[in-house]
Write a structure and sequence with these properties.
Blueprint (H helix, E strand, L loop, with lengths): L4 H22 L11 H29 L5 H8 L3 H25 L1 H7 L18 H18 L4 H19 L16 H7 L16 H5 L26 H6 L2
Helix pairs in contact: 1-7, 2-6, 4-5, 4-6, 4-7
The structure holds zinc ion (2 copies).
One zinc ion (ZN) binds next to helix 4.
Length: about 250
């Protein structure tokens, strides 16, 4: 059986659903009403899945033709590295670029419109993290697809592992599982760390990193989750009006 990147992604996704469902039920971080926004979350999830698929195909096809000739020596040097290292370096570069896209989304109104839908989450668990607008998915897909394809020439299996890691990180960021990476907590984003970023009133423009906390520490957007008050509220600080949802889903 010849598995493609998409197959790895689907297998990884269902494995992670089972794992995080189990973790959240056995070790919940907060009391949570999972059914409060379930309709919105199902709608967002189906939408995000479709948009991600479409963007992925478009950018993958474009990026193959885009490999810049003057980067041939860099590409060749990267090719000689072991697979695991290439996937890690790709993840690191993509995470750095996404940090700055995310920062722009919080600093400029035109970009904030693409991101407000994600911040409308008031009940955070693994499923709610998929609440992303069309333009949000579009923006994030550019580095997520272009960097691995143009610079790293990842094979379908390597790209599949990379994407699966990306989905894993998405689950970790938003899960209601009380989770810690122990000695690696200083390096990696944990659920309580990203939760600060979803706060309704405190520090919403901080803890912007997706995978590596070091970007926040380096660029002055770090907040220690241990210093947050108990049970702080999440979301936009006001309920989302039904009539605004279609526009927020698109990201305009
Ligand atoms: Zn944000
Ligand atoms: Zn989030």
């Amino acid at each position: 059986m010849n598995l493609q990147a998409d197959d790895y992604e689907i297998i990884a996704f269902f494995g992670l659903v089972m794992l995080f469902e189990f973790g959240e039920r056995v070790w919940p971080a907060q009391k949570l009403d999972r059914l409060a926004d379930v309709k919105l979350d199902v709608l967002s999830f189906s939408f995000a899945l479709a948009v991600n698929r479409i963007c992925n195909y478009i950018f993958r096809a474009a990026a193959v033709r885009l490999t810049p000739p003057h980067l041939a020596t860099v590409v060749a040097a990267l090719q000689s590295l072991p697979s695991a290292l290439r996937i890690l370096i790709a993840l690191f570069i993509v995470d750095f670029i996404i940090y700055w896209i995310h920062r722009a989304q919080h600093n400029y109104d035109v970009f904030w419109r693409t991101h407000a839908w994600h911040h409308s989450i008031e009940h955070m668990y693994w499923f709610s993290g998929f609440r992303t607008s069309f333009l949000h998915s579009f923006l994030y897909n550019i580095p997520q697809v272009v960097i691995p394809v143009t610079l790293f020439h990842l094979s379908p299996a390597e790209a599949g592992i990379g994407y699966s890691l990306g989905i894993f990180i998405q689950f970790v960021e938003h899960t209601n599982w009380k989770m810690s990476f122990g000695p690696l907590n200083w390096l990696l984003v944990t659920p309580d760390y990203h939760r600060v970023h979803h706060s309704a009133s405190l520090h919403r423009g901080q803890n912007l990193a997706g995978t590596f906390r070091i970007w926040d520490r380096m660029f002055g957007t770090y907040v220690d989750p241990a210093k947050m008050p108990e049970g702080y509220a999440l979301g936009l600080g006001e309920p989302v009006e039904g009539k605004k949802i279609p526009r927020m889903l698109v990201g305009l």
